Amino acid sequence: MITLFGQTYAWNDPEVLILGAVGLILLALLLLILRSVSRSATAAEPLMREIGWLSNRIQQLGDGQERLAGGLHHVSETQAVSQTAMLQVMENRLTEVQRQMTEALHGTSTRTARSLGELQQRLETIDKAQANIEKLSGNVLSLQDILSNKQTRGAFGEIQLHDIVQKALPKDAYTMQATLSNGKRADCLIHLPNPPGPIVIDAKFPLEAYEAIRRADTPRGVTEAAQAMRTAVRAHIRAISDRYIVEGETADGALMFLPSEAVYAELHANFPEIVREGFAVKVWIVSPTTCMATLNTMRAVLKDARMREQAGAIRKELALLYADVDRLGTRVESLDRHFGQAAKDIEDIKISSEKAGKRARRLDNFDFEEISPTDPTPVIGPRAAE
């Protein structure tokens, strides 16, 4: 580094190189001058002109150096101002970026908190659903336990039958676990009028045969399961026909209730001959859905029978109602006559009131000449005149 005219420059700066060149030129000139002292005066004149030219040139170089120094100073100031402005812009930009990052972080934290809250709610919902699934799984296992035993399966069918009958019929229209004259106990006895008479509904559930059909995966297994299904349903139909169709006591037919729509559909889809055998002995197979429809039909029959039973009482009530209506008409006519007479009396009272008012006004004005001597309304009654 080197300092010239109050400015600091590096050794390789252009200004320093120029000054170095000028110094070398001056040193060369001085050497030439020293060598030429002994020369003649004629040779010294061109040398002086050269020295003058070099002096002017050196002056121009000095002026250029000053201008260059001023330009460098201006450039330095401009660079400093630019650096200051750039630093200010960068500080503002950093502040804005920091603010945006703060807002973004705040929004992100808010959304994260909201998402965590929603996630917590969904986890609670999942926990509740899991609890319900576990409860349902326990219920399914309980149902499997119930259906795996013949006695409990029979009780299940009876309970389902009772629920359907209870919803479809009035309480006095049926009897659950009714005992017939032959000592047989029916699951449900519907008290229909004659004909057709009381009809029995008995619940049967051939679940083992149905499950065997579902599990069969070979032609032989399918054939054996189908044969077992036919045997089981035929046995149920025969038992209902023998036990619950009693001549003179019940209807000439009975209903076999299957608590499963799947078993009912399987029976009608793949074993129609069994259904026809039931029709032949007047044992009709029903499912929960068809049983409800059948019971609604029975309800209409019961309603019609009760209407016929009450027909006499209804006619008697209608006769009394007709008498009451006739009596009411007579009394309305009498009341109408009374209203007419009262209206006439009120009209007469209004006429008398108008005449009395007119006479009172005449008396107040002492206008006796206008009073007609033939006025039908006497001022003094007959008793006073006497």
Structural class estimated from helices and strands: alpha/beta
Question: Counting H and I runs of at least 4 residues, what is the number of helices?
Answer: 10
User: What's the level 1 CATH class of the domain at 156-309?
Assistant: Alpha Beta
Oligomer, anyone? single chain
So, CATH architecture of the domain at 156-309? 3-Layer(aba) Sandwich
Mean pLDDT: 77
- Main sheet attributes: strand count, strand direction, barrel closure: 5 strands, mixed
CATH topology of the domain at 156-309: Trna Endonuclease, Chain: A, domain 1
Strand content: 5-15%
Set down the secondary structure blueprint:
Elements: E1 2-4, E2 7-9, H1 14-35, H2 41-147, H3 150-168, E3 174-179, E4 185-190, E5 199-203, H4 207-215, H5 219-244, E6 254-257, H6 261-270, H7 272-280, E7 283-286, H8 288-309, H9 311-365, H10 382-385
Parallel strand pairs: 5-6, 6-7
Antiparallel strand pairs: 1-2, 3-4, 4-5
Helix pairs in contact: 1-2, 3-8, 4-5
Short description:
The chain has helices at residues 14-35, 41-147, 150-168, 207-215, 219-244, 261-270, 272-280, 288-309, 311-365, 382-385; strands at 2-4, 7-9, 174-179, 185-190, 199-203, 254-257, 283-286. It is α/β, with parallel strands linked by helices and 386 residues long. The strands form two sheets. It has a five-stranded mixed β-sheet. A two-stranded antiparallel ribbon has the order 1-2.
